Each structure stands twice: as C-alpha cells, then as structure tokens.
Amino acid sequence: MTLDLGQRAEIARTYSDQDMRDFAMLSGNPDNVPADVPGPLVGGLFSYLLGVELPGRGTNYLKQSLEFLAPAPVGQELTASVTITRLRPEKHLVDLETVCEAADGTRICQGRALVYVEDVGKE
Q: Are the CB atoms for 84 and 6 separated by under 8 Å?
C-alpha cells in the first residue's frame, strides 16, 4: 500500500444504551452507567482505523494525544477519521490527525497519532 499526504480513512459508529451498560460492567462499576460515550470508546475508533484501515496491518501505535471538546452523545452516530499529515519513510513514521464528530457536526475530540509502519512509501 502506498501512503500519501492527505490520505484519509473514517468509520461511523453509534453507541447504544446497552453499549454503555456493557462498558460499565466491563469497567468493574456496573452501577455507574455513563450518560455519554466514554473517551476510551472514542479512542478505540482511532485504534481500529490505524490498525485496520490506514495505515493498516502491521501498524505499531507509538503515541496518541486526544483533546475532548464536547460530550459524545449516546444514540447518535459518531464519525472518527484519521488523516496523514506527515510521512517520514527514512524512520518508518507516519503522523496523523485524528478527529471525531457527532452527526450534527459537533467536534467531539481532536488529536494526533504517531505510528510506526515498516513499509512507509513502498508499493
């Protein structure tokens, strides 16, 4: 796969009330069901994109920063995206912008990711 500046991947996901109950159970606090989608679930969307879509298989996550700007509403579609902002083939590094928005366009979070990809720039 050839990687290019500006290349982008996205995923849309709607978290349900049941997802929030499951999250509370899995986090060990079943009586504390979140009213909004927790940050780790939003961050998981970026992990999926980086490991499966862009850059994809063989990607090693080195660094992630996320700034949460608004609550992520339960029951509303969230769209997470990653966009390549810098390629450093000599070091096998790819920098990406990460953004998650609600269906109404509200930016839920934004950040950056740095990943190691063995075959940056190779066909």
A: yes
